[in-house]
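Ops channel
N.P.: pipeline sanity check, posting one input/output pair.
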């Protein structure tokens, strides 16, 4: 329900961006000339009248790439000449999203390019649709890395990210008869235009073989024999930011075998084996996160991780030596950051470089390494802390294995010598245990800083996950709460809201997001609240139009948009959301004449290909959607939408339209979250547990502007210690019992015995224990939607208080407190 007839006057609110463009040296004439040159020279286009949108997209992208490249060269020259320390950010994922719109906007030439394309009778918006989402990431981890590249550029820090140039992203999701199916994510056709090849900086990466160590005249030497070589070829992507001099660089590595084919085997007629090494080598950069529930998948994942680390360390050392000709001052001039445990092999690889290639002693090498590396942990769940089979790592990376063993020997001896820990504690801190190599422990041992990504997460790391390490070195642990690329999620994704804010407090917030706090003085301004409601309604209409075009499905923009979009996992508890929808449908059937706030439940999520229960939950959500659509008594009041192939581009449409942000993970399981921050920035109210960054959202908006339910982390731990028996909740709550029984009896002709049994027998993430509190909080929230001024005031408070979750703040904390960077 809106304050007044929104359908009638929504058109009065401008939806196109209307702001003063940034100053730029590039005029329309210059940009047009650059486009024409790219069309004629690079794309072999002779007649612009016959040119396709794809050709214009590539020309526009190449022009933007050229401008960003020149800007990066100037920025790099200035920083290097001043001897500034720089940071290298290693991550297996960088979820960039589409690049053209973001780059044009950040360079201040979007309006100019739009005008240029108009001369060619081309709509710039159509060119945006030619670009695929870059397949370099999966979810929050990769999106965070991309946001930090943006933030580092905006704050003018010299930063380089490293990743793998995956030929295929994780997968394209298709929903067929309610089931997730996976197909290859072929993003490079269309995406390759942003890649700048740099073959002269290719690196040789070695796998397998034998290592022969020897001592002569007091000098240690290492000889490698019978190894397999893979060539890492770098490609560069410039990462721009809004109205800044800085440009970050993302360097991605493509794997190639040096020979391609074994001609002896080929000539002998053994064709398959002749190409085998080429296939094995090039598979490294073929697919993001190959399924690792079999030995071949584990082997490939380990190859990917070492490939990224070895190539990146070699490149970083080459860069440093080109300027300083020694690695002795390396830690003073460089910081290397490990984004989760996947790049942890960079620690022993850098040790190998210092020991074997440069001849430094162990003590000197270890000092350089530990002053260089810092590690961000992204999980508190023990089963998600990465471990590698000792035999696998020893056979694939023999020298790295021997270095890890020596790191562990010295580390454990140090703990004993300091009389810090008993045998049990040292065993918990050991890198090697039970024939496994524990990568999180290696990351902690080899880094000078370890941080969590929310206050609660960091406290759990100190108290539980790394408690022994924390007691041994408390100064090593700190917190940096996650941040997002706020300009992308507000200025680009939500121009209507951007204009409303600028009209109210001026445009200064676009550079300094802390100025959003000035909106707090407008929370009693009913005229502004009316406009805020209209902006939200128009965004909902835009999203409905998108869904109609993509799926043919008609959504109701006057209903409340309740959104849960995140990776599908039991700890995120999409199953609890679905169970409540079942209970709500049952209530509607029992009370057909009762007052009811119409609602649209929106889900977006991918399940890991091998995660059976997650795929079952997707099927459950889709079955609920089908059941409701077939029942007129339900479909007039409720809609359930599962968004197929949810990605960054879709998110940029959904976030501005969202009204309820579902952040319902079991307390103590979500490290932070970033979707909660994007939704908050766009005015959605958070319905969540005291988990991850929800705790800090509550701190800044106050209890009146967030809806918190369920157990806190301490209560979860207490219940688990006493013994959690979900059957008890089932037996004493008739709403739970009826909803859970429906999983067994069937929804739209489909039964879900596995979900039913999971909830009643294990329910590890305590869905049933929190269900009643969740259902009450949700219904209270929906009931409050009719008090529109209060709702819009709460929405405005969330927008005003969202600046703390901007990546500008996060990267500045990293720079000041961890990396020791100067602007």
């Amino acid at each position: 329900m809106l304050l007044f007839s929104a359908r009638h006057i929504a058109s009065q609110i401008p939806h196109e961006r209307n702001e003063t463009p940034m100053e730029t040296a590039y005029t329309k004439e210059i940009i047009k000339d650059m486009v024409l040159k790219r069309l004629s020279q690079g794309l072999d286009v002779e007649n612009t009248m016959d040119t396709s949108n794809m050709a214009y997209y590539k020309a526009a992208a190449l022009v933007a790439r050229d401008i960003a490249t020149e800007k990066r060269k100037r920025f790099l020259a200035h920083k290097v000449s001043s001897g500034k320390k720089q940071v290298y950010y290693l991550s297996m994922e960088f979820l960039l999203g589409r690049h053209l719109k973001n780059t044009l906007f950040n360079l201040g030439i979007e309006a100019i390019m739009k005008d240029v394309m108009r001369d060619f009778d081309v709509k710039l918006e159509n060119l945006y649709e030619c670009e695929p989402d870059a397949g370099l990431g999966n979810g929050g981890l990769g999106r965070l890395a991309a946001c930090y590249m943006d933030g580092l550029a905006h704050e003018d820090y010299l930063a380089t990210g490293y990743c793998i140039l995956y030929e295929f992203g994780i997968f394209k999701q298709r929903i067929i008869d309610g089931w997730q199916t996976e197909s290859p994510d072929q993003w490079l056709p269309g995406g390759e235009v942003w890649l700048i090849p740099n073959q002269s900086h290719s690196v040789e990466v070695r796998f397998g073989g034998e290592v022969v160590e020897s001592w002569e005249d007091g000098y240690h030497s290492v000889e490698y024999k019978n190894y397999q070589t893979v060539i890492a070829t770098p490609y560069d992507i410039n990462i721009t930011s809004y109205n800044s001099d800085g440009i970050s660089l993302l360097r991605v590595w493509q794997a190639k075998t040096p020979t391609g084919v074994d001609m002896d085997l080929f000539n002998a007629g053994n064709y398959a084996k002749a190409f085998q090494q080429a296939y094995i080598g090039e598979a490294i950069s073929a697919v993001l996160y190959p399924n690792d529930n079999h030995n071949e998948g584990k082997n490939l994942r380990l190859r990917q991780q070492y490939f990224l680390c070895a190539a990146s360390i070699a490149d970083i050392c080459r860069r440093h030596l080109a300027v300083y000709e020694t690695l002795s001052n390396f830690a003073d001039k460089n910081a290397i950051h490990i984004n989760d445990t996947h790049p942890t092999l960079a620690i022993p690889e850098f040790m190998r470089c210092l020991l074997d290639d440069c001849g430094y002693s162990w003590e000197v090498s270890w000092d350089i390494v530990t002053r260089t590396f810092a590690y961000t942990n992204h999980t508190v769940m023990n089963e998600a802390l990465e471990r590698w089979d000792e035999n696998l790592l020893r056979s694939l990376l023999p020298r790295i294995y021997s270095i890890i063993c020596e790191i562990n020997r010295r580390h454990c001896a140090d703990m004993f010598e300091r009389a810090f820990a008993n045998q049990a504690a040292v065993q918990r801190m050991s890198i090697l245990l039970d024939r496994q190599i524990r990568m999180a422990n290696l990351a902690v041992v080899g880094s000078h800083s370890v941080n969590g990504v929310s206050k609660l997460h960091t406290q759990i790391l100190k108290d539980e996950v790394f408690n022994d390490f924390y007691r041994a070195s408390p100064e090593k642990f700190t917190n940096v709460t996650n941040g997002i690329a706020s300009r992308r999620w507000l200025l680009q994704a939500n121009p209507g809201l951007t204009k409303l804010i600028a009209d109210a407090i001026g445009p200064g917030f676009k550079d300094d997001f802390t100025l959003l706090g000035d909106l707090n003085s407008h929370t009693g301004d009913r005229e502004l609240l009316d406009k805020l409601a209209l902006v939200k309604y128009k965004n909902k209409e835009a999203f409905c139009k998108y869904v109609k075009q993509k799926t043919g499905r008609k959504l109701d923009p006057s209903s409340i948009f309740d959104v849960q979009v995140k990776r599908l996992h039991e700890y995120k508890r999409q199953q609890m959301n679905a169970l409540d929808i079942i209970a709500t449908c049952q209530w509607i059937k029992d009370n057909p004449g009762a007052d009811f706030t119409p609602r649209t439940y929106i889900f977006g999520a991918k399940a890991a290909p091998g995660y059976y229960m997650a795929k079952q939950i997707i099927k459950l959500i889709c079955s609920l959607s089908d059941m409701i659509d077939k029942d007129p008594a339900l479909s007039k009041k409720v809609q359930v939408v599962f968004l197929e192939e949810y990605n960054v581009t879709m998110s940029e449409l959904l976030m501005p339209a969202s009204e309820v942000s579902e952040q319902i993970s079991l307390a103590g399981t979500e490290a932070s979250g970033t979707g909660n921050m994007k939704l908050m920035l766009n005015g959605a109210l958070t319905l969540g547990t005291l988990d991850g960054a929800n705790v800090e959202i509550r701190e800044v908006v106050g209890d009146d502007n967030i809806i918190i339910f369920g157990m806190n982390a301490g209560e979860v731990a207490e219940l688990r210690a006493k013994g959690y028996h979900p059957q008890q909740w089932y037996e004493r709550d008739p709403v739970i019992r009826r909803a859970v029984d429906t999983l067994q009896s069937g929804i739209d002709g489909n039964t879900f015995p596995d979900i039913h049994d999971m909830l009643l027998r294990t329910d590890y993430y305590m869905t049933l224990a929190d269900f009643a509190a969740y259902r009450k909080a949700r219904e209270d929230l929906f009931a409050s939607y009719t008090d529109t001024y209060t709702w819009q005031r709460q929405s405005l408070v969330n927008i005003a208080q969202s600046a703390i979750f901007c990546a500008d703040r996060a990267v500045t904390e990293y720079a000041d407190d961890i990396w020791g960077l100067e602007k």
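N.P.: looks fine end to end. Confidence is low (pLDDT under 50) at residues 1-21.
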